[in-house]
Structures
1.
Amino acid sequence: MSVRPSTLRVVALGRKNFLFVGDVESGKHLATLYSLVASCEQAGVNPHAYLADVLMRVQTHPQSRIEELLPDRWDAARCA
């Protein structure tokens, strides 16, 4: 699996920013957000549209079908 140069750039830019996260819990939350955005980009999904839709739907979405909200399975047409 090859790594795109833009992915490496995000890591390099973030490295300095990660010093100012504040505490361990905030760092974990930031890492989760970075992971979601990277997963969206890898799946060819607009991260902003994905997060806007999923954060609204996750409250009422059935837990038994939570895998439908993963970036690689998310369908932008269904949220329109």
2.
Amino acid sequence: MRKLIIAAATAATLATLGLTATAQAQSAVHIAATAKKTVIAGLPASIKLTNPGGTATKCTVKVTGLPGPVTAGTAASVNKGCTVELEGVFPTPGTKTITVKFTAGGTTTTTILSVTVLSKPCENDAVGVGSDTITPLTDQLSTDYNNTLPARTACNTKVPVKPFMDTWDAINPISGVIGDSIPEKSGCPSIARPNGSSAGIAQLATFNKDADGKFLCTNFARSSRARGATDPPFAAGGVAFVALAGDAVSWSVPAVNTAAPASLTPAQLVSIFTCAATNWNQVGGGNQAIKAFLPQSGSGTLSFWTTALGITPGPCVSNNGNMLEENEGVNPVLNDPGAIFIYSVGDFIAQKFHAAKCLNTACTANASGVVCKKTPDKVQFWCDVHGTMTPRQINGIAPTTGTGGGTKINPAFPSTFDRTLFNVVPFDPATTDHIPGVSSPVGGLPLEGIFGAGGFDCANSTAKADITKYGFVTLGLNCGKTS
């Protein structure tokens, strides 16, 4: 009886994870389970496995067979260490066999995980590119959404009612390289990796189709800015911006900058980023030259900030040769006593309070391309790369409220610096919200079930929790609205 109960629990646990599984109790002291998972080469993946033998007793876990860029982590606070997170990038296609041994109370339970690594997304997958700000959140949302679908082991060419969702990070998740080549999806040519909202929207707006003309190669773009004057129109042949979450942006400084005041006004920020003020003592701070930095061109955070201030950045402002990535505070050029940078408040919250610490103080990847080891008590797709950069007050109002894990974006923060985060999709004249629907959708794939007001991102409780865990604000009835 005990063996049968354990075997049933094993299958149920793995099914909950979105894995196809079979389990068989081998003996009173050894239980074997097998599981299958399909991932895409080059895309971050996260797989959580829980001891099929139960979580009543503290576990030790041994994992073998992982490729270099994938780590295994546990947390004593999650199921007594009996849940392990396998997270990272499977770099090459093929089949990988991973062995996970849980030992608890003298009983060793072995799970054999077979991972099918596809060389690229399938042609009927919904593939996205663009903003770095919401890359980690979108990685999480796509993982959780895909886990609601029947498991797959290979591509097919059918038009799905619910497509799988794949999202290319804004920068290479192993090497950190910007603008490298990515095999966007099956049947499509490789492209330079779009880095930033504008680059993602521009790629979507090519409306390139796969070799058989059935599906778009890019199905959506992540955007941390609102529609711009040069974007395709909200009309047939154009695009729709779909509201996802709320965020705020503020100025930030590293700990080494002791000259900056606690708060700046919008007028003072204008003077700094137009180079009218070049010393911190001109804006209420100490006697220290200002070193103003902004993120890479194409950044939605950059576009939002310059629009909010109504400026064109002056000649003293640097993006470090276009290599200064938004919402990353660990670039050495920022470790300057005069430095000022800008930061997504949501990303700062997720990094500082909910993400794993880097393996080294510089947050550089090790030889395998790993920056941090993910554990089940932290967000699955962020490392804490804020360094010592801390968002500061505007008009005397702090960008955050609360402490520790309860830190949130301050609703009283000046609204000029609040923003909406979007997914951008092809405009579909046949649907009320103009998100591609299930009947002859523009681009070949129905996206309302993912991005619409009643879709996964807006209506699913797990997705809402994801948005909060990644530091952003849920939008309630405004989620899924298009413009």
3.
Amino acid sequence: MTDEDIQLTPEHPEAELSHIVKGIARRGLKPVPAKTSVSLRIDTDVLEWFKAQGPGYQTRINAVLRAFRDASV
């Protein structure tokens, strides 16, 4: 079957890379550590800046905090 033979429909659209990545098995890899939900007070302008960068702002905030922790050691 070639790409030209594939018929895309609303019921069967083209797969998105992000959807495929979520389905990849993590065999042999370390388990992803659980996250803890916290309430954190952040200046409005800082939070808006992170949100303006697009989806995943909480992950980016976590990465910045982790980098600060690692740099402080």
